[in-house]
Amino acid sequence: MKRIYTILSAAALVMTAAASAQAAGPLSFDGADATTVGIYIKDLSTGKVVASHNANLAMTPASVTKAITAASVLTKVGPDFRFETSVGLSGEREGGNRGTVWNGDIIINAAADPTLESDEFKPNRGFTDSIISHLRALGVKEINGTVVVLESLKDAGTIPQWEVEDVAWPYGAGLYGFNYAGNCVRVYPNKGITRPASNMTIKVRPAEGKSDDMIRGAHSNEMTFWLTPATRNKPDWSISASVDNPGAVYEALLLKRLNDAGIRISGRPSDHKRVAVQSVYNHYSPTAEVIMTNMMKRSDNLFAEGMLRTLDPAGDRDDCLKVQADLWAERGLNSRHTKINDGSGLTRSNKIPPAFLGDVLESMARSPLAEKYLKFFPVAGIDGTMKNFMKKTRLKGRLAMKTGSVSGVQCYAGYKVDGNNRPTHVVVVMVSGFFCPRAQVRAAISKYLLTKL
Asked: What fold is seen in the domain 25-80+288-452?
């Protein structure tokens, strides 16, 4: 009887170990048995699925959502699209063609360009300087009017599904009809000021933990800081924070810059209609191809939201998402179990199955745009958000993948490439709900990919 009991106990242990291994899935890290893992790897030359685990399970994609946004925009809008922001004068010149006084307003027709005055495109900067130089070229030295920014973007600003904890930070800046310098200002909480000036209300509270924190509600100008004693003792301490209504911030900034430059402007709105009768300056963004390369390699949320809206500039966000969904339905992809609320993936409620991501990637790999699309992706051990991933392995330079991470989520989606940088495999790995350090998850994914690719 004792021997039978021992055999049964041993068998039970084996079954338990097997069950645990099955629950843990293909990745090994602390708490893997309580974590959801989705994997989809396909050999593009043979069409064979090399690995599939929870491939049809809708999971939180985080920033790998940008890979779908980039694919949709590249396909529907094209690589050469540019945003155009036009600047003109309403009203009329006083004293004829040689008059130096203009009676009217400066009219800025905004086009939702997310790159305007971005540090990421320094050669393309100089929007304000260009306005000033063109006014001088027109001989305008005085303006009896103000600066008016016209914005037509529907449902602008912070996306309702975003977490309030993200909104204040630069990565949580919303997209507006007019965007400027990443829609951020420099905040000096201990001085209660911002640069450039804004109508932000600043409140400072003692930190509740050992680190500083800040929060600003959606469509709010009230910023609350929780600062540690060390930070409170630094009067010049500052931080970059997002703002609501960047158009209003820029109106005030341009008024000041004009007066500083010797072009007197009253700042009082004229009684003329807000229609430009005299062109001053047209500003063009970098091309969509350049913007999306930067967007993908750095994982820029504002750029992603701006690019999404090019799918239907006259529509709202849902209209743009419908254009995207229809595109992939026309390509024969089943998006019935996907839920996408934004272009960036900052929305935690987004749900995308690994296999759907893989299908989008495969479709792009087989399209005439494959070479341009592939260049958007960060490369393992080389650049962007993949610069340190698998840097000391044989897959360095052989994986071009978009990364995605929010709390408890780590995702990768892209391609394995050959020595000529041509895609050979579609690779999607999604992990959701982990509790261990993120480094453990990344190491587990790295180890897994080395066994499969």
From this structure: Beta-lactamase (3.40.710)
